[in-house]
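The instructor's notes for this session suggest beginning with a concrete chain rather than abstract definitions. Hand out the sequence below and ask the class to guess, before any prediction is shown, which regions might be ordered.
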Amino acid sequence: MRKRSQRLWLIGAAGALAIGAIALAVPALQDTVAFFYSPTKVFEKQASLAGKNARIGGLVEKNSVKHDDAGLLHFTITDNKHTVAVTYDKLPPDLFRECQGVVAEGKLDGEGKLIASRVIAKHDENYIPKEVADKMGAAHTKHDVPVPPVETR
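After discussion, reveal the predicted structure:
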């Protein structure tokens, strides 16, 4: 076999291995990837998001935080247009409170309710996740929450 033929076989084998690795990795990652959505996007795409992992960010709606007898935490996240109901079975972060920025991660059920596996609250009075700030803009003022300056890096 000539050297040129050997190189072609080697390149072909490497390409086949790369395609095989990608074919195995994509389905495995689909169950773990969580895309960020605002409550309005969840409202618009409710049927197609059922059963999928998602991150939903916004403000914890005023007077929406409730604990039931089973110890579950129920609250709603709003972007001042739409809301998403959230159920969380663990203790919330220390900084979790009404009218504050929050990102909840979990699975959406068929009714647009998020069964959260993780809740992330803001870490100081000036921080809000960039995605949330971009999607909400000046909507913070509606809840008497000052709009923090968005830091660019």
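Then share the key points. The radius of gyration is 22 Å. Strands lie at 35-37, 53-60, 66-67, 73-78, 83-88, 101-108, 114-121.
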